[in-house]
Fold this protein.
Amino acid sequence: MNSIKPILLFSTERSGTNLLRAILSSHSEIASPPASGIINVLAKNRYKYQCNTDGDNCKELISDAIRLIDAHPSNWDINFTIDQIKMEMREPSVWEMFRSINELYAQNQSAKYWLSKEPNLFDYGYEIKTHMPDALFIYLVRDGRDVAASMLKGRLHENHIYFAAKRWRNDQIKCLQYISDPLFRKGSITVYYEDLIRDPYTVIGNLSDFIGIDFESSMLEFYKNDKIQDHSKRSEFWKNLSKPIISTNSKKYLKNLNKNQIHTFESVASDLLKILGYQLEYRQIKSIRIINVLLYYVYNYLIKYKTSRFKNNENKKMLRYKNIINEIEYK
């Protein structure tokens, strides 16, 4: 078969990755399965499988990938078999499994490209480049203060502004390391979320040229796509995917964060905000003492504990998904 080209999205969570995926996957030549956390779980645990030349251990790796995809609330709506994926793999490894499973998904949709927005792909940039040298990389960046506001509002990923700032800053450093490396430079593009919502025609036009596809009007009418509509109903945090792009969805932190939170975020991540061209609200960086950080940890722990008590009522599918992750983590 002809090679189907991979497109990898590097970005911090809550940066507009679902929006960009919805837009690009509405193109007739791009297939993009929902993120199922398979890389987050399997890449860091790949030493447990020890895939050998005959691929016996890879059957367990592939089986766990299929289990994660099927159990995730946003499953791929496609039935894979272990033998089907194993036959597609050119060598026994987690990255060949990842490539093969995405290519099979793309084949199912007669697409020429597959796009993945799996979380934390930027932790494995050089490995991905080694195993998939023809891959294209999109770095999607959003004002970290808006990212933090979104995280705190939904109690997603982080519960305190200090840790949200640290997370965003560290993620951008990882992404920029790749973007500044000549190995990635020709095959990567940086997209600002704020530009995307302000001038989507220009940004998506540039992205289309970068990928090597013709612009299609369906890309900016993603909200009419049945699959995107279905995806938007699966979480409160994805509901905006059922609507046209909201051009005013920036600088929400001015409303959703208080002054102290904004000042704290900038005190932690001012260097990366400046590098990426975002203006600071405060000229002076405040000192964050060790005692403050300790209090932030206590607060974070209490919020996580309180939240976990309510998570006992999670739907059965999410609990099954988390049980599978635990099984893999403690093999």
